[in-house]
Amino acid sequence: MLAKKNYLRHKSFVLDEVGATLITTIFTFLAATNLVIPLFTPPTTDQTVSYESITPGRYLICSMPTPTPTLIVTIIPTFTPTPTPTLLPTEIPSSTPIPSITPTPTVSLAETCQVGANTIKKGEGLCDEKSNTVTVCEGNNQMVQKQNFCGQGQVCLSQAGNFQIKCNAACQLKLGTGARTKADLVVLAEDFNSYSDFLRNVDKEVAALNQTNLGAARLGKINLWALLDLNQTYFLGYNCPITGGSVVACWDHIKAITTAMSSCGGDTYSILNNDTHRVGSVGGIAIWGGNYLFKFALDFPTFPHELGHSMAGLVDEYSFGIAAPSGAIAGINCSEKASQSETTPCPKWATRFPSVGCYKRCGYTNFYRPTIRSIMDRGGTGAVYDFNEPSLVDGWDDILKYFQ
Question: Which residue ranges traverse the bilayer (predicted)?
């Protein structure tokens, strides 16, 4: 170890073998760099000591103090880095799409007509449903009326706010499949001004039929058509004479059946009057092959009642207030002869309809009916929608057996 003393320029130390080796290495380096100070072994002054072979022992190193260099400290300025600003993405607002504007093509006067405040195009027009007449724009503000514009079996339809001409079938199927193997019943319009009003009332007639006990099997043999022809009149007058008396109102039966047959292939018809020829409380009148009905009576079972007359050949069961004249025929659903009691079937029904009775008054006061009430009895309050058994079997089934 080196023993240090402050402010001494001479340092003495003892070398061991390792230390001697280290010293030799150091001096070899110093000699090579001309920085070696000769070593002397006291007291001999001329003894040279080899750099390579230093014998372990005690040595005295004379040295000059090495001046401490003055350090000039260069102050390096500290640079504070300018912070890099954080770039926040600027949100680009989505632009409101600008609608493409399709320029309205200019329509020449030769292609238009003026209808009130509306300008319509050539080929457009107005439909008068009452007369089935279309007033067509032919350009240059010329409107021309054309009867039966839509052609045979078609009618024009009026459309509010729309001048395009629309056509529809004149015969509108309201009940059934339209198969020609069925009985075709055609409802004819009288004194209606629009198809929509007429059809709405025909729907009430269909609803009344479905309310009866005719059932799906019997109604399945019937097609009911509504003829969209508002330009026909069938009414002839009141108190029309007939054989043996008069009828409260009458109509042109030949015209009606011909119209029904030629327009919709009808087998029978029913005229629906818009209450313009209403006669007191009379809701409808019927003959074999057709009937005439007033609109107000659709709130009662009047429509199927009148069909019972015109299609099934049934007679009225309510009271006429008089006895049957000589030779009068009772009809399908009435009997001339009574039974022992009301709850016992009349003789004409005893074997075939054991569940019916024999109640006095069936049209004439001296005829008898099979049930207390049925649809062929008086309508109004307490009216029923069911046909009695003789009416269903001997009336409806007997006529519908010819249809499928």
Answer: 20-40
Tokens 């009772």 sit on residue? 330
Measured in whole angstroms, how far is the alpha carbon of residue 136 from the centre of its chain?
33
pLDDT in tens, the chain (404 residues): 333 333 333 333 343 444 444 444 444 444 444 444 443 334 444 433 333 333 344 333 333 444 444 443 434 444 445 555 454 555 555 555 555 655 555 667 889 999 999 999 999 999 999 999 999 999 999 999 998 899 999 999 988 888 999 999 999 999 999 999 999 999 999 999 999 999 999 999 999 999 999 999 999 999 999 999 999 999 999 999 888 788 899 999 999 999 999 999 999 999 999 999 998 889 999 999 999 999 999 999 999 999 999 999 999 999 999 999 999 999 999 999 999 999 999 999 999 999 999 999 999 999 999 999 999 998 777 789 999 999 999 999 999 999 99
Reduced to 3 states (helix: H, G, I; strand: E, B; else coil), residue 298 is helix
3-class state of residue 118 by DSSP: strand
Strand positions, DSSP E, 252-289: 268-273, 284-287
> Is residue 160 in some structural domain?
yes
98 occurs within a structural domain: no
Claim to verify: residue 310 and residue 181 sit in the same structural domain: yes
Given a contact cutoff of 8 angstroms between Cβ atoms, the answer to whether 399 and 227 are in contact is no
Residue 123 domain boundaries? 109-169
Asked if the structure places residue 69 within a domain, the reply is: no
Going across the sheet that includes 171-175, the strands are 171-175, 222-227, 183-190, 268-273, 290-294, 284-287
Model-level pTM greater than 0.70? yes
Q: Are 249 and 240 in contact (CB under 8 A)?
A: yes
- What lies within 8 Å, CB to CB, of 379 at 6+ separation is 283, 297, 300, 301, 302, 305
Rounded CA-CA distance 108/101 in Å is: 21
CB-based burial label for 203 (10 Å; 0-12, 13-18, 19+): middle
**Residue 152 forms part of a structural domain:** yes
Does residue 340 contact residue 398 with C-beta atoms inside 8 Å? no
